[in-house]
Amino acid sequence: MLKIHYSLESDVLNIINDITAPSEINIRVRNLVLKAKKGQSVARGEIIAEHPSKFGGAYHASASGKATKVNYHHLTIKCDCGENSVEPVDVQSMGPGKDLLHTLQQLGIDIAPLSSHCDNLVINGLNPEPGIFVAELLLECEKEILETGLRLAESLITPIHTMLAVARGTSYSLSGTESVSVKPKYPNSLNALVIKAVTGNEFCDDTKIMSIMDVYNLGLAAKNGLPVTDTIMTICGHNYRVPLGTPIRHLLNELDIPVKSGDKAVLGGPFRGEAVYSLDEGVKKGDHGLFIISAGEFPSVEDTTCINCGECVLSCPARILPNLISRYAEYEKFEMAKKYDLDSCFECGLCSFNCTVRRPILQYIRFAKDQLRVSGKAE
Length: 379
Ligand code: SF4
Ligand code: SF4
What we know:
InterPro entries: 4Fe4S_Fe-S-bd (IPR017896), 4Fe4S_Fe_S_CS (IPR017900), Ion_transpt_RnfC/RsxC (IPR010208). The protein has helices at 98-106, 134-141, 143-157, 191-199, 212-224, 248-254, 311-315, 322-330, 334-339, 350-354, 361-374; strands at 17-18, 24-28, 33-34, 41-42, 47-50, 59-60, 65-70, 74-79, 120-124, 161-167, 178-182, 207-211, 230-235, 238-243, 264-267, 274-275, 289-293. It is an alpha/beta fold.
């Protein structure tokens, strides 16, 4: 049986390994606005899709090549291993304002936290989930880029105070920030709980939060003037720089990680990650971990009936009723799920993890949020 622990402490800190480029990349484009067509040749860094929201960053080809398959879910690029790449943009010479925000969005940055002033800016420097060491790795190895990203964020947000949340017992710092220590135990790394730990308040209209990974991407965009085309991931206890869209199968082959029939590959962390349906699935923006769960090592979730044991309610840090909300979502009563504070759920996954009968509670909650978003009824 797999033993899951809650500790957010890091094991491996000081190396980011590179991955050999794949021959093909698969980029998930579901719910995005496609910009590339089948048969089109693309340069590395060329925009292939845009986010439908006002603030979401664009999506780019992480390698040059030809778009060989395009459908509602995925865009596949056959890589040509060439040097064809977009030209860098001089981000650092741009003053704060709409043009800078637009440029950052075109470089793949989510500009929602950057687009208005706030008195307090919190940088979340905790590792996101147990077994993922990316946040502390960046604080250890990439301080200069982080400080470049932070200065850019501050020029747009103009905060009065900037605070860096770090794991208790560590001494990470960034210039111009006040370090605040947080107990390194999941789910304390989630933004809502970090804000509460740092400010003492649950509802803070005057506070914005950014993850250290977002600050890093911002710093890279500022320094290189190139789009976000890779992500840093912890895989089996080691850290890698992985081009976006790299198929999981390629990662497993390159790293010599065996997978048997019935095993599950999970992109993301052990609590919030998603099992992929195919090893051809590509790594996405925001994926910072890959875990292989061997068949039989952990009981899988099933559409079983809730037995009203209350375990999920006891484990919910948002103090809502996951049992009730997930049942409303299951029967497509999304408005009722919303009435019972669906929007207060910050998707920690503890309800699913602790469910006595292994109901897919988090999946139901995400389903309800998605459906409300698509129907325009989300907050
Ligand atoms: S995922 Fe479950 S436990 Fe976590 S906040 Fe949402 S409802 Fe509560
Ligand atoms: S833990 Fe599972 S079975 Fe128990 S109340 Fe929650 S949803 Fe129902």
